[in-house]
Amino acid sequence: MTSSVSPFMKNLILSFEQMDDGFTTVHAYNDDGMRLFTEQWISFISFQHESSFYGLHHDEETRFQTLELVELFSQSNIHPYVHVSGRAQEDDVTISTIQQASSLWSSPTLWDQLSIEDESLVLHAEDVSDEAQAMLTSAIQQKLYSAGLTFSDIPTLLPFFKQGGWPLQPQSGNADVNVALRLSEPESFPDDWLLETVVRGKRSSSHWTPPVRKKQSSISDALPDKWKIHAPYVYETQTQILDLMNIEASPESFLSRNLSDLDVRHFLRDDAARLQALGFEVILPAWLKVVKDSKLRVKSNANTTSFKTTAGLNEILTFDWNFSLNGQAISEDQFKQMVEENREYIRAGNEWFRIDSNWMHEIRQLMDQTETENWTVKELLFRELPDALVQGEDSEDEDDPLFQFELNQSLKKYLEQLQDKKELPTTIVSPHLLTELRPYQQEGFDWLVFMREQGFGVCLADDMGLGKTVQLIAYLLHVHRTNKTNKPSFIICPTSVLGNWQKELAHFAPDLDVHVHYGQTRSKEESTAAFLENIKPDVVLTTFGTASQDAESLSEIEWSSVTLDEAQNIKNMHTKQSRAIRKLCGEHHLALTGTPVENRLSELWAIFDFIYKGYLGSFRKFQENYIAPIERDDSENHKQKLRTKIRPFLLRRTKQDPELLLNLPDKQEQREYCPLTTEQAALYESLIQETLFKLETLTGFEKKGLILKMLTKLKQLCNHPALYLKEGFGEAEYMMERSEKLARIVTLAAEIAARGEQCLIFTQYIGMGHLLQHCLSELHDIDPPFLSGSMPKAQRDNLVEAFQEKEFPVFILSLKAGGTGLNLTAANHVLHADRWWNPAVENQATDRAYRIGQTRFVHVHKFVTIGTIEEKIDKLLADKQALSEDLIQSSKWITEMADEDLKELLTLG
């Protein structure tokens, strides 16, 4: 732009800065290089820019969209007494680019030079820089968006644009008449709407339409004499309107068309918005602009003839439907007529209301289902109703929902029992249970029995240490001693806790006949079903691996109940093991897990597919309905829907829940029984035979030394064969396979850490400490420090302080080095990896966590290998609690035992 010598000319020196968000920041300077305040210059470059209110939008802010820059620098907006230039060379280039784009912006041939290629606008013009082309196409897209249009609208709008409809401006109209499109509401229900072309004089407030006799006449013939001269303008304007609408009509005569509610919806959504965006006048009923959304209320009363208890779950329901619009009752026939006619706008009294016709169709479909499908009580309680039926999209009043089921009192109470698990019938605990249930355990037992009687599978997800095992044992005694079923119950668990189940069943319910289906000794000569029919056990125990291997024979048996302990083992639904176990057939399916399954969605689906097949739909549907919106969008609405859906079948209590008043002890000790692997058992037997042979040739003093040396080897072997064989460590998974005890400790520690809790692991052996570090680090990305006797005091003190500050979740300690003098109350779990023959030493170690300052109860896990010297001495000490403290201060008392007693102690059970 060349400088002018006019004394009125004002110079603006501009700088431009492109921002990351697509906006451009502009600053202005005077001839002396001083930066101007926004209000000093903004009005000069926007003095004809109506959309920014002539610069008032930018009284302080100087950020501009591409569209604004192109419009501000167009020929029609340039101030005659303002000259602009760039502050730097790159600013001059920017000004030149904007001016190129602005020149094309208002060119009458613009749309002849544009084409759409690969869903992008491409400009076919010479001497236009790539930057100017990009700016122009960006401005066009922004202009369309600001008018409520999209890029996809361009093909249909091209004829309009080429005829001068670009840039989008209000229609200038004619000096004497104005042409508009008018929509009129029906005179009465169920009449149609009327869409017509109307004409108004510029000085008149009323609109004219041709009389009925001239509706089919040409525009020129239909117009009054005073307006006949404007017939070409009326024809042209109506033709443009019709071209822009998705409607077939002759442009020769005045438009007059009846519309249904559905047509009106499409017109308002598509055509009216587009016409108004392009500057044409569209006249709508005044009430339509403030139309109130649906006031239609639907209530259905569900009843049965004589619902009393669970026996009525399969009774057929009857439904009584009631409808009201804005408080006025509507008959069922009227409602059905509204649905059939796709009514969307309904008059009630003197008011009009918009009804969601899709929602009404869903209600009608639901009515048809209840009439033809014979819903039962069970189906109603657990049927997943569409969201729109449960509450309207804009309905915030929970006391006045758009749709509601009303249940009779007995049905309502039953639903509350299932949802809240309160006021359940109390079940008398079998006298064969050799322990007392705590109040919350009694509630869990009552719930298990109640759900069995209803025919609903369950997931008992109580926190670790709350006694899921004893609740299930009470349930099994009820099933087999009170109900006296002749079918066995089946328990599937990880190999590492198989021994634990044997011991717990024998301890709490010795009256139950338990058969272990595991290992090489399990039935193979005849079918498993025939074998079990012959021995008639109450309970059959097996592992996940064995259940998978023997899936074919086990699936032939109808079990009284099938229980999965550590049910998350079937979380991968595609594995052979998971598929095989989910095919098992039991009268009642139960899942036990201490993990918060509601936060692991794929695991949750697999568990529910086992306890209540089909309830959560196919996995693909579950992914679409829940996993994707929850994991991708963190949708709280979908989380709540899922919680509501699974709530009746899931019982989860945590130790931290103050409302449960669990009344737990300050310290709870629990033995964790683990079997030897085949490798460990062979090495164990070999060592015993070798030692017993040597003992026969040794004197008393030598004999004691050999026994003490053998005890150390046996305890190391019970921990892991690599410690006994003095081997190096291999891959963590391989090391875990060789020792069930190691696998159980590592898994338990990882679960504790995952819950945000902390634990101490005590061991007598340096090698075991390093092996635990190796496995936790490689498999679970946990790097626990190991406090041993060789650690300097300063480092030891720093580790203790860091653990108390919760900087790491797992702390491994040598029993001698860490067993006394430390305050580690941040831990609420203590794991004894190997047993010290002196209970006082173990208790001292436990007291690192269980001491003054501990605010939570401490869960102590003592790991014992089944059938070995560990189990036998543990039982011996428990049986001989009267032994004096000085007698059991060390392992030396074992060396004093008679040969026969020693042989019995060492023999592998």
Task: State the main characteristics.
31 strands; seven-stranded parallel β-sheet; disordered N terminus; alpha/beta; six-stranded parallel β-sheet
Strand-helix topology:
Layout: E1 10-18, E2 24-29, H1 38-45, E3 63-64, H2 66-72, E4 82-86, H3 89-105, E5 114-117, E6 120-123, H4 130-146, H5 154-165, E7 177-184, E8 193-201, H6 219-222, H7 231-244, E9 256-259, H8 261-277, E10 281-283, H9 286-289, E11 296-303, E12 318-325, E13 328-330, H10 332-340, E14 345-348, E15 351-354, H11 357-372, H12 377-382, H13 387-390, E16 403-407, H14 409-420, H15 439-454, E17 458-460, H16 468-482, E18 489-493, H17 498-508, E19 514-516, H18 528-535, E20 539-543, H19 544-549, H20 551-554, E21 558-559, E22 561-565, H21 576-582, E23 585-586, E24 589-592, H22 601-611, H23 619-633, H24 636-646, E25 650-651, E26 667-674, H25 678-695, H26 700-719, H27 721-724, H28 732-737, H29 740-754, E27 759-763, H30 766-780, E28 786-787, H31 793-804, E29 810-814, H32 815-818, E30 829-832, H33 839-846, E31 858-865, H34 869-879, H35 892-895, H36 899-906
Parallel strand pairs: 1-4, 7-10, 11-16, 17-24, 17-25, 18-20, 18-22, 19-20, 21-23, 22-24, 26-31, 27-29, 27-30, 28-29, 30-31
Antiparallel strand pairs: 1-2, 2-3, 5-6, 7-8, 8-9, 11-12, 12-13, 14-15
Helix pairs in contact: 2-3, 2-4, 3-4, 15-16, 22-23, 23-24, 25-26, 29-30
